[in-house]
Write a structure and sequence with these properties.
By secondary structure, the chain is an all-alpha fold. The chain has one domain. Helix content is 83%, strand content 0%. The protein has 7 helices and no strands. Helix 1 runs parallel beside helix 5, helix 1 packs antiparallel against helix 7 and helix 4 runs antiparallel to helix 5. The longest helix has 31 residues. The model has no long low-confidence stretch (mean pLDDT 79).
Length: 193
């Protein structure tokens, strides 16, 4: 039996999405519509596929696999796609530079290994509660803030503009409100039982 969708949590997720849009709107003005779609569509697909893949793995495996094993399973299942994408990139634009390879390695270790295992472990801890699961999944939006900090510190990217800072602030407010609402609803349910 599927859980009921937490509408307040979805509303807070939309606040977070607004913050992300504000962070990116200035870049969007300098891009063509094709470039914008090529950047936006994969992000939208990934933002749904990542938590849905994790949920499906939890459902199908029903406690037989831990977070590490689920990460390995999802990695192996998606490997053919990544190999095809790599071949496409190799034949259309050539091999990546050394700098791109090092940056990809940092992303793979920090986001692909460490953050994914932590995320999967957190979802394991709350998998029976849709409110808490939604709150854990909303933490993905914090990745945007860490990516900006990493770009500025490690890659010498320019400091974000005031509009980007407003977007980051809205993301943080959305995260706080999401956690507050989830916690409040869990407490209300506990009082009624």
């Amino acid at each position: 039996m599927r859980g009921k969708l937490p509408m307040k949590g979805i509303a807070m997720s939309l606040v977070i999405l607004l913050g992300i849009i504000l962070m990116q709107v200035e870049l969007a003005t300098s891009l063509s519509s094709t470039e914008m779609l090529l950047g936006i569509i994969p992000v939208i697909i990934a933002s749904f596929a990542y938590p849905l893949g994790n949920r499906k793995m939890m459902e199908v495996c029903s406690n037989r696999l831990d977070a590490y094993e689920r990460v390995l399973g999802m990695t192996l299942a998606s490997l053919p796609f990544w190999l095809l994408l790599s071949l496409y990139g190799l034949f259309t634009t050539g091999a990546p530079s050394q700098e791109q390879t090092i940056q990809a390695l940092f992303v793979a270790i920090s986001s692909g290994v460490i953050a994914t295992i932590l995320f999967f472990q957190a979802t394991d801890m709350v998998k029976g509660n849709m409110l808490k699961l939604g709150a854990v999944e909303a933490t993905q939006s914090m990745e945007v803030l860490f990516a900006v900090a990493g770009e500025v510190i490690l890659l010498s990217a320019p400091i974000p503009t005031p509009l980007s800072w407003i977007g980051m602030f809205i993301i943080m407010i959305g995260m706080i409100l999401h956690s507050y609402i989830s916690h409040k609803e869990v407490r209300m349910k506990a009082l009624h039982t």
